[in-house]
Design goal:
This protein is an alpha/beta fold and about 250 residues long. It has helices at about 75-80, 120-125, 130-135, 155-160, 185-190, 195-200, 215-225, and strands at about 1-10, 15-25, 35-40, 45-50, 60-65, 85-90, 110-115, 135-145, 165-175, 210-215, 240-245. The chain folds into two domains: about 1-90, Beta Barrel (Elongation Factor Tu (Ef-tu), domain 3), CATH 2.40.30; about 100-245, Rossmann fold, CATH 3.40.50. The structure holds flavin-adenine dinucleotide and NADP nicotinamide-adenine-dinucleotide phosphate.
């Protein structure tokens, strides 16, 4: 189940937020899935899930992580440098993948709502052709506390250049005022119409698929705000509009 991976690249976005690119012999995965990283200490295994940021088809997995004060694994990951080893699950897992979204539901607009490190799996998905082939518009809503918490901005800006008529980026920075961003939390920006105003179209049951990932409080709030607009959860037996993955 486990393979030994080697860190081949490390990016520090700020003093807590970092990416590790890990060369590892993992089985093919689907964009949007997560792998597990793990260490064995005193015969006890500590393993945690991390979404893959890169698209499938590479010989490495890249993860975006934040070190949680007093966390069991993330501070150890934060200590890893180029050349260091870490255990990686051979298989990826997770259902936050486009093939799980209803095909029969003719949604025109795909909305990705992310806080913090949860932008990662959406980057993996957006690096594939599928969202651009299936949806007229793809909106990434990326919520962070402060501007320094934003990661992969260059890569995100490149989607604007590659898909100028299709891609929209809405950044929410909640603890300081930053030009070109909104300052409300994501659920509030759904409730007050801010997201729709920025996107230029409505979040409707008929046209929208919404995938939400990250902070569980944000997910609960965003889901409720969407329920209030008539959107419903996607279930395998009953297709709807909303798919979620909570990080804790
Ligand atoms: C499906 C899935 C995918 C995930 N993908 C990622 C990822 O791509 N990047 C990532 O950093 N984490 C991700 N996580 C969270 C990750 O698995 C760990 O929980 C996290 O790194 C903390 O582990 P720890 O052992 O250091 O902390 P623990 O001792 O397990 O403490 C957990 C606490 O840390 C906080 N926390 C956990 N994750 C985060 C986070 N991402 N941002 C802010 N606070 C957090 C919460 O308060 C949580 O209760 C994912 C979780 C799941 C379930
Ligand atoms: N000590 C530090 O200086 C420091 C700094 C950064 C990160 N960290 C550590 O890193 C971890 C992750 O921080 P993070 O900034 O990536 O994640 P975060 O706390 O999940 O914040 C990301 C975004 O989600 C919003 N949010 C949080 N709770 C919400 C809720 N219930 N409903 C709607 N929106 C909500 C935040 O808004 P608000 O700003 O309004 O909360 C922020 O815009 C923290 O748990 C902490 O351990 C520490």
């Amino acid at each position: 189940m486990w393979t030994t991976g080697k860190v081949i690249e490390r990016i520090d976005w700020n003093d807590k937020l970092f990416s590790l690119r890990i060369a590892a012999d993992v089985e093919p995965f689907i964009a949007g899935q997560f792998i597990k990283l793990s260490e064995v200490r005193d015969d006890k295994r500590v393993a945690r899930a991390y979404s893959v940021v890169n698209p499938p088809g590479k010989d490495y997995v890249e993860v975006l992580a934040v070190t949680v004060d007093d966390g069991q694994l993330s501070p150890a990951l934060h200590q890893l440098n180029k050349g260091d080893e870490i255990q990686v699950s051979k298989k990826a897992a997770g259902f936050m993948v486009l093939e799980e979204l209803p095909k029969e539901h003719t949604a025109k607009h795909l909305w990705f709502l992310a806080t913090g490190t949860a932008v990662g799996p959406f980057l993996s998905i957006m690096e594939t052709d599928e969202p651009w082939e299936r949806y007229e518009k793809v909106v990434l809503v990326y919520g962070v506390r402060e501007e320094v918490d934003l990661a992969y901005l260059e890569q995100i800006e490149a989607f604007k250049e590659k898909y100028p008529d299709q891609f929209q980026l809405i950044v929410s920075v909640t603890r300081e005022s930053v030009n070109g961003t909104i300052s409300e939390r994501i659920p509030d920006a759904i409730i007050n119409g801010g997201l729709e105003k920025h996107a230029g179209f409505k979040l409707t049951e008929k046209d929208s698929q919404v995938v939400i990932c990250g902070n569980p409080g944000m997910i609960t709030g965003a889901q409720q705000a969407l329920y209030d607009k008539g959107l419903i959860k996607n279930l395998r037996r009953a297709p709807g509009n909303i798919t979620v993955e909570k990080y804790w």
